[in-house]
C-alpha cells in the first residue's frame, strides 16, 4: 500500500498532464496544414518503409504502432487532424516503426511482454476494488501486485519511448513539418515531451483498454 499510493498518484498526474497537453496542442493548427496521416506516410516513405501501413483506429490517444502487422494506427483526431499534436503523435508512432525497422532491441523486449502487461493492467483495478468490497486481502494483494508489475514494466521500458520521441523530433525537423515555434509546442505535446512519463500514465493506468503498442 505504501508503494501503490505514490504510483497511483503519479499515474493520475501523468494522465491529466497528457490529457491537458493533448487538449491544448490538438487545438492549434500547424502552419502547413499537414494531417497526422500525411506526416506519417511521408516519414515512412522517406525512410524506405513504404510497406508499413497507416490506418485510422477508434478512440482518443489510442495511437500505436503494431509491430506484428507493421501498421501505424492513428486515432481519428490525429489521423485527420492538422494540429501540432497530430504531427507530434504521428511522428512518435513512426519513431516506433523506425525502431522496429532498425532492429532496436528494447522495442522487441517490450513487444514480447506487452500482451501480458496489457492483461495485467486491465485486471489490476477491478481486482483491487473487488478485494475492497469483499474485504479480501488476498484479492487486493493480487491487484496491487499486478499494478506494481505494470508500473515497473513501463518504467523499465521508458527508454523506448524517449528514443521514439527523439526519432520523431529528428523527422519533424528534417522534413520541415513544423516551424521553430511550433517545434517547441510539439515538444510539450503528448509523446514528444520530456514528460513522456505519460507512458506510465497512458499505459500503466486505468484507461489502457485501447492501447496496444504505444
Ligand atoms: Zn510510444
Account of the 3D structure:
By secondary structure, this protein is mainly alpha-helical. The protein has a domain of about 150 residues. It is built from 9 helices and 3 strands. Strands 1-3-2 form a 3-stranded mixed β-sheet. A hairpin with a 4-residue loop joins strand 2 and strand 3. Helix 2 packs parallel to helix 4. The chain is globular. The C terminus is likely disordered.
Cross-sheet strand order for the largest sheet: 1-3-2
What is Rg? 17 Å
Q: Which sheet architecture does the biggest sheet show?
A: 3 strands, mixed
Order of helices and strands: HHEEEHHHHHHH
What coarse outline follows from CA principal-axis ratios?
globular
Task: Summarize the amount of helix as a percent range.
Answer: 55-70%
Task: Write the topology of this structure.
Elements: H1 4-25, H2 36-46, E1 53-56, E2 64-66, E3 71-74, H3 76-79, H4 84-101, H5 105-134, H6 137-156, H7 158-174, H8 180-188, H9 198-204
Parallel strand pairs: 1-3
Antiparallel strand pairs: 2-3
The protein binds zinc ion.
Zinc ion binds next to helix 4 and helix 7.
What is this entry, summarized?
The chain is mostly helical and 214 residues long. Helix content is 64%, strand content 5%.
Features:
single chain, 214 residues, mainly alpha, three-stranded mixed β-sheet, 3 strands, globular, disordered C terminus
Amino acid at each position: 500500500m505504501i508503494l501503490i499510493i505514490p504510483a497511483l498518484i503519479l499515474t493520475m498526474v501523468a494522465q491529466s498532464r497528457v490529457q491537458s497537453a493533448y487538449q491544448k496542442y490538438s487545438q492549434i493548427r500547424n502552419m502547413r496544414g499537414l494531417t497526422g496521416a500525411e506526416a506519417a506516410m511521408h516519414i515512412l516513405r522517406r525512410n524506405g518503409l513504404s510497406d508499413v501501413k497507416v490506418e485510422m483506429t477508434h478512440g482518443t490517444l489510442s495511437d500505436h504502432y503494431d509491430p506484428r502487422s507493421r501498421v501505424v494506427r492513428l486515432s481519428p483526431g490525429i489521423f485527420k487532424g492538422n494540429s501540432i499534436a497530430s504531427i507530434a503523435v504521428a511522428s512518435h508512432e513512426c519513431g516506433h516503426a523506425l525502431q522496429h525497422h532498425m532492429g532496436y532491441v528494447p522495442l522487441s523486449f517490450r513487444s514480447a511482454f506487452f500482451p501480458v502487461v496489457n492483461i495485467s493492467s486491465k485486471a489490476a483495478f477491478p481486482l483491487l476494488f473487488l478485494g475492497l468490497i469483499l474485504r479480501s486481502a488476498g484479492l487486493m494483494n493480487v491487484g496491487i501486485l499486478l499494478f506494481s508489475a505494470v508500473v515497473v514494466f513501463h518504467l523499465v521500458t521508458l527508454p523506448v519511448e524517449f528514443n521514439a520521441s527523439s526519432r520523431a523530433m529528428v523527422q519533424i525537423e528534417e522534413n520541415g513539418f513544423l516551424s521553430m515555434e511550433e517545434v517547441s509546442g510539439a515538444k510539450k505535446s503528448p509523446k514528444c515531451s520530456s514528460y513522456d512519463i505519460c507512458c506510465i500514465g497512458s499505459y500503466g493506468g486505468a484507461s489502457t483498454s485501447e492501447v496496444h503498442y504505444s
